[in-house]
Write a structure and sequence with these properties.
0% strand; 3 helices; mainly alpha; binds protoporphyrin IX containing FE
Length: 96
């Protein structure tokens, strides 16, 4: 069993973090959406939650892809990313 081997990452602020997936194989969110739509491939370790693998993905129409991308972009929070409260400190506590 591969329970815990992969963790589904948060999509919060994902617009800022291309390239995507653990190996950066997808350059854009459109590439990721195309993958889930029609390029999913079965493997012995695929998640049982990937219900549409038999049809290579969820087969989204162009308009559904666009809606999905626009939804993902609503998870973008520039004010959080630029907040001084969460910036790298001038010095980390263990730094000399
Ligand atoms: C259309 C539906 C989905 C969308 C739009 C979506 C979107 C994404 C995006 C944008 C990433 C890249 C995150 C990053 O690199 O920071 C990602 C990764 C991932 N997603 Fe999804 N996802 C969907 C469905 C699913 C499902 C059904 C599962 C589990 C059964 C899943 C599990 C994962 C995992 C484990 C990763 C990390 C993969 C890796 O690092 O190689 N996703 N997803």
């Amino acid at each position: 069993m591969d329970i815990g081997a992969y963790v589904a990452p948060t999509l919060r602020n994902v617009a800022f973090t291309a390239p995507y997936m653990h190996d950066g194989r997808f350059k854009t969110l459109d590439d990721v959406i195309d993958f889930y739509s029609s390029k999913v491939v079965w493997s012995p370790s695929i998640s049982p939650l990937m219900h549409h693998v038999a049809s290579r993905g969820v087969q989204l129409t162009p308009s559904q892809k666009s809606d999905l991308k626009n939804f993902i972009l609503t998870l973008t929070d520039s004010s959080f990313v630029q907040s001084a409260a969460f910036a790298r400190p001038a010095k980390f506590p263990d730094e000399k």
